[in-house]
Amino acid sequence: MNENEKRKYIKGRKLGEGTYANVYLGQLRTDPAVLVAIKKMKVQREQDGIAYDAVRELKFLQELHHPNIVELLSVFNSKDQNLNLVLEYLPLGDLESLIRDTDRVRYGAADIKAWMGMLTRAVWFCHDNFVLHRDIKPNNLLIAADGEVKLADFGLARSFADPGVNMTHMVITRWYRPPELLFGCRSYSGAVDVWSVGLVFAELIIRTPFLPGNSEVDQINRICQAIGTPTEDNWPGVSSLRSYAVPAEVYPVPDKKAWMDRFGGVGAEGVDLLCKTLVLDPNKRITAREMLEHRWWRTDPKPTRKEDLPRSKDDGAKKMGADLGRRPGAVEDENRGSKVARRLDFGAK
Amino acid sequence: MAAEDARYRQSSQYRLWSFSPVELATLREKSNALAKASISERMLSSNASRPASGANTPDGDATPTLPEFLTPTEEALLVTFYTSEVLRAGNHAGYRDAIKATAAVFFRRFYVTNSIMTYPPNDMVLVTLFLANKAEANFVNIGEFANKFGKKNAESILAGEFLLCQALRFAFDVKHPFRALKGAVMALRRIGGIDDKRINAAEHRAHEILCFSPLMTDAYFHYTPSQIMLAALSLADRGLVEQLIADTFHHVSPPGTSGPGTPMETGDAPPPPRRDTKSEDKATIIGAWIRDKVLGTIEACRDMLSKELPEERREHWASQDVFAAELKPLRKKLNKCRDPDRSNLLELHRRRREQARIKAETEDDDAEDRGAALADDGAVFGDAGPRDTKRRKVGKGLEDPFGGPL
Known about the structure:
The complex is a heterodimer. By secondary structure, chain A is of the alpha+beta class.
C-alpha cells in the first residue's frame, strides 16, 4: 500500500527547506502535467517518536476537505521512516507576499473582500467540524493557480476540548494572538481564530502588520492602545484570568470614527465587520458563521472573481516551499521556546 | 441532516475504516492467510539453513514441521482480549475516556490488516495507547509513559509507533459517540415531562456501555457514532430512545399534522393514518420508512453491544478461570506460531533503520538529532546506550515491578 502511494509520484526539485520539513515539487507518474507539493518531514527526534505537529497536521488534513483548505492527496513514508505528505500544488505564493509587495502589487476593496471571503469560509468550515486552527496568519494562506486562497499548516490545530479539559495557551503566532490567550486562558473557543482573521483583515487593508508586538507584554500593550484596555466593564471576568496584566493607563475602546480613519478603505460595512472580529471579550466576538452572514459581503463592491485577483510578482512556488517547511508558529513545550522566539521575529528589522 | 451525513462520509472513519461484516471477515481471513504463508516460509528457510551451521539443535526439533497456526476466529478472540488489556492499561494510567477509546479503536484497526501472529499484541497495547495520547492532544513524555507501565524499555514503544501509523493509513481521527450522548441527553430534557433522575441514570449507564461495549466489538467498523450512542442508550433505557426517535420523526411531518394530542407520547406506536391532504400522507410514509430503517440499525447495533456489556470486563475478561480455559491455550499456540522475524519490534525497527541508513548515506541532516536522543536515552536507561539491542522483553505486567517513583 505504501509502495503504491510512493510510486504514484515523481519527486522533483526542492522548493524550500525549513526547520520542520523540506518541500519538493512532484508530479503524478501517470500524468506528469499534474503537479503536487511533497512535504517531507525532517527526521523525527527519537525521544518522543513521531512529532506532535505531524500527528496533528495529518489528523486534520485527513478529515477536512474544502475548497479553501489545502488538500492532502496522499501520505507515504520513505525508507528512513520519514513522513511525506503529498499536498496540492499552490504556485502563486501567499497573502503575505501580496500584502508586503506594496511597490508592485496593487489591490482594492473588492480584492480584499474576495480574499477575506475565502479565508472566512475556511475558518467557518474548521469550526463547523469542531477544529481550531490556532495559527492563522498571512503566510499560512497560500494561493492556488486559479487564485483560490487555501488555509494551510495544521501543525497547531486541535479539536474543540470537552468542557473541563484544559488546552495550552501557547498557540498562534504572537502578532495574531488574541488577548484571552495572552492572559493565559486555558479554555477557549473558535473566537481565538476569529481574532486572527480580524488581524489578517486589518493587515490586508493597511498592508503592514497591525499589532506587531515584539514580546508578549508588548503585544498586550499594543492591543490596549489600539483596541482598548480589557477591563471588567468591557469584558466581565477578565481580571481573574491567570496572567491578566495591563498597562496602568487605561485606554478606551476607540470609536467608529477612529476605525474609519484608519480602515475606511473597505467602507463602513467592512469596518463594522472588522470591529466585530476584534472585540476584546471572546464571548462577544463575532463567530465565523456570523461573519459569513454579515452585510458587507452583499454591499458594493462585489468581491473580485478569483481568476481576476492580483497576483504576486515573486516566485510563488518558492514561497510555498518556505511556508510549508517552517515550524508552526508557537509550541507548547518550553524547551523549544528559543526556536519559537527566533521564528517569530520574521519580518522584523 | 443530509449535509451531516455527507460530512461523515468524508471522514477517514467512513472512507477507510467502515466495512460490512462480510468485508471485514474477508480482510481478516486474508491477513491470517498472508501471515501463515510468510511465517511458514520464514520458518522453513531458517530450518533449512540450520543443518549447515551445526548438527544438534538444543530442542532436538530440526524437522521442518510447521506449528499449528491460529485460525481467524482464534485471532479475533485474542484481539478482543488484548483490547480489554488496552482499556485496562488506560484505566491504570488514568487517561480520559476519549484517549482509551481511541487506543482501543487503533488496536482493533491495526489487527484488521495485520495478524496477531505477525506483530506482538503485548507491545502493541502500549504503542496504541501512546499514539492515542498524541492523537487526542494529550502531551506525554515517552519516558514517563513507559514508567507508568513498569517498562524500562521505552524504545519498543517507539519502535512500534511508525508501524501503527502506517497500518492506520496515517488517519488519526476517531469519531466517538460520547458527544452524541450529551446531545441526546439535552434533546431528552428539551422534550420535557421526563423525570430527570431517569435521564441521569440512563446517561450514566449508557456512558459506561460506550466506554466498553462498542470498543470490545466491531461496532465502530459497522455503525456511525450516533447509531452506537442510540444503541447504548437503548440498552440503558429503551423507552427513552423510542421517545427520541418519535420526537425526531414527529418533526419530519409538515407543520399542522401534529396537533396537541399526538399519539407519539407513548413512543411505541407509529402515527395512525390520517385522512389529510395527499402531500401530508406522503410525508408520513417517507418518515415512517426512514424511521423503521433507523430503528432496525439501532436494534442490530444493540444486539452487538449486548454481547460485551461492561459487566463482562469483570466477569469474563478479568476472570482467572476464563483466562486459563480460553486464553492461555491460545497464547501458548501464539507463542509457537509467531513470526520469527517480527516478534521483536525493537530488533525489527533497528534493522529497518539500519537498512535506511545504508541506503541514505548521502543525506546526513539527522546527525545532531541523534546526539540529543542519545543523551536522553542515557538518562532513561541508566548505562544502556540506545544501540543496546539485547534488551529483554518485559512481560505484560502492568504493575511497576520496581515500585513507585523514587
